[in-house]
Amino acid sequence: MPLIVNKMPNLNHPKRIVALVYEHLCLFEFSCVAEIFGLERPELPHKIYDFQTASLNNNPVKTQFGGVLQPTMAIEDVTGSDTLLIPGWQDVIQDVEPQLLAFLTAFNAKGGRIVSICSGAYPIACTGLLNGRALATHWRYAEIFRERFPAIEICADKLYVDCGDIITSAGSAAGLDVCLHIIRKDYGSKIANVVARRLVIPPVREGNQAQFIADPVPVRCDSSIAPVLDHIRENVALLHSIKSLSQSVNMSERTFIRKFKAATGKTPKAWIINERMLRAMQLLETTRLRVDVIADKVGFESSTAFRVQFKDKFKTTPSAFRDKFSIAPILENA
After folding, report:
1. How many domains, the chain?
2. d(CA 62, CA 25)
3. Which pTM does this prediction carry?
4. Out of 30, 168, 242, 258, which residue is the most buried by the measure of CB atoms under 10 Å away?
5. How many CB atoms lie within 10 A of CB 73?
6. Which residue has the higher pLDDT, 203 or 211?
7. pLDDT 10s digits, 126-164
8. DSSP secondary structure string, 244-282?
């Protein structure tokens, strides 16, 4: 996929993100949203988001564990230029209030962007807005959603699905990924990387359509393979052979290859190249090292071989990638 350069919006006019709060508000999901969009960020030159909260009729809501939260506005005050974010939901079986369903439908028709985390996809699905499209939610809700919403493709194997006007994400921590995805769409990867660095989390993880992504290790990863993956990551510049890797875990080469592919979805060679690309991306984003030095640090015999692999995977050159995504000057001036 070719590199797409988005025009940087005016940072003097922050976008408004409104979190929908509801009875028995899920605090982890809400905290993720508040942390990313509501926290002051002195490391950035301007405020990028105006974070607000809204409930039906501006009523206070009870949260998990006995708290009470007073929203800053009524949901009726949310405009079509805003992003409405639903951080979880109270119940994925009971019917949703008709007032909320009507609002979501009208808000979407006005061009408003709707985002959900985990079970927050439930009220969106109830509107019918995603019929014929796809949504992501926590895997534990997948069967319930499939039975209740047969017209929607339920993706329990993705961190988030971006349909443009509606973005849905999987369980809890995937909310951080989708929030960073929103920042990347709104302001570009340089700003998203700064926010991710402050949170001490990876700036990009696998979603539905993001570019420059390497696959994370699946949850099904065999524990006998995990030490090998850790060893490769820690020594990505070394020459790794099937023989040496299989011997390190006392397996035959055939068994090792079979278990490795079952755990990662890739052959050892493809996975190692993928990890080298991940490390190269990090060095291009965060350092001023020459491309040939980076090629050596991530295990390529020559900078030419590195450039060929990089361009084949990302459809751009290492230098062009650095021009777009480097945060080294920001880090040096922080």
Report:
1. 2
2. 7
3. 0.62
4. 168
5. 13
6. 203
7. 999 999 999 999 888 989 999 999 999 998 778 889 999
8. HHHHHTT--HHHHHHHHHHHHSS-HHHHHHHHHHHHHHH
- Which residues span the domain enclosing 329? 226-333
Secondary structure (H, E, C), 7-50 = CCCCCCCCEEEEEECCCCECHHHHHHHHHHHHCCCCCCCCCCEE
Q: Torsions phi, psi of 86, nearest 5?
A: -110, 100
Residue 194 lies in a domain: yes
Tell me the CA distances in angstroms from 251 to 81, 112, 238, one per residue in order. 57, 55, 21
Q: Which two tokens stand for residue 183?
A: 């920042």
The residues, ordered by sequence, that sit 6+ positions from 127 with a Cβ below 8 Å of its Cβ are 101, 104, 105, 108
CB 89 within 8 A of CB 99: no
Lowest mean pLDDT among 17-26, 67-76, 177-186: 177-186
Contact residues for 26 (Cβ-Cβ < 8 A; gap 6+): 64, 87, 88, 89, 90, 118, 119
For residue 214, being part of any structural domain is answered with: no
Taking a C-beta distance cutoff of 8 angstroms, is the pair 123, 148 a contact? no
**Do 121 and 55 belong together in one domain?**
yes
At 189, list the tokens: 């990867």
Within-domain flag for 220: no
Report the CATH number at residue 265: 1.10.10.60
Considering the domain architecture, whether residues 30 and 109 belong to the same structural domain is answered as yes
> Which 8-state DSSP code applies to residue 153?
E
Same structural domain for residues 239 and 306?
Answer: yes
Closest CA to 188 of 20, 330, 35, 34: 330
207 lies in a domain? Answer: no
Please say if the pLDDT value at position 239 is more than 70: yes
Write the single-letter amino acid at 275.
Answer: E
Burial class (CB in 10 A: 0-12, 13-18, 19+), 222: middle
Residue-wise pLDDT tens digits, 301-334: 999 999 999 988 877 899 988 887 776 665 555 4
Same domain (yes/no): 138, 44: yes
